[in-house]
Write a structure and sequence with these properties.
Elements (H helix, E strand, L loop, with lengths): L1 H11 L5 E3 L10 H9 L1 H4 L9 E5 L15 H5 L5 E3 L4 H13 L4 E5 L27 E4 L4 E5 L2 H14 L5 E5 L2 E3 L3 H11 L2 E4 L8 H10 L12 E3 L10 H7 L3 H12 L4
Parallel strand pairs: 1-2, 2-4, 3-4, 6-7, 6-9, 9-10
Antiparallel strand pairs: 3-8, 5-7
Helix pairs in contact: 6-10
Amino acid sequence: MGFAGIAVGSAMAGLRPICEFMTFNFSMQAIDHVINSAAKTFYMSAGTVNVPIVFRGPNGAAAGVAAQHSQCFAAWYAHCPGLKVISPYDAEDCRGLLKAAIRDPDPVVFLENELLYGVSYPVDEKITSKDFVLPIGKAKIMKPGKDVTIVAHSKAVETSLLAAAELAKIGIEAEIINLRSIRPLDTATIFNSIKKTHHLITVEQGWPQHGVGSEICARVMEDETFFHLDAPVWRVCGVDVPMPYTKTLEINALPQPKDVVQAVQKILGKKK
């Protein structure tokens, strides 16, 4: 609470602080500063006070840290106007989007994943440039496909890619979209993909109720894109319980590739 408040105040005074939470679960102690001070001040000051701050740290499930340290806050913070919410997957996402977040004039919540810190990814030479920046609010198609659209963010992108590899073995070509940004949400990329595949599945480690997948479902329903669907949208989420501590239960509480494969087979039915 203390260092979050100091960071927000310094941002109001013209600095560009990065406030790191050891885990985003601890941001609950500072949520008044994040929501009531950082997110709302530009509006409440009639556009006279910017708060260019980045709140970053590990988000979502790690391993063996039980219920109080395993929550995904993507939906929580994305619910609040005034914040931008980033949920990167790989090294390219983290580098390009963190630089964009630091340069942004508004408060940005940057939700990393602890289990991905030690993972190596192939990177293009351009990513190492000091000028490499990714636009906030633009998703990335990780794998093109024609049979079903799978939308995910953070570690769920890895889950979706593993599921896509299994689906390819039975002749199903899944298109994988890495959201990167939760707020703003790149609906254009999602809608264009649905118009090609006519099927949509969302994958996230967060809880199902009022989640990121729920928001995507609503956006599709409210758009002409709904008429391009040949089956209902299916959400693959974390189980609707506090995270168990036991390792076997923890695995079963989070989406696995087999869950995504089963969801795809369910909505495609006998067509594949």
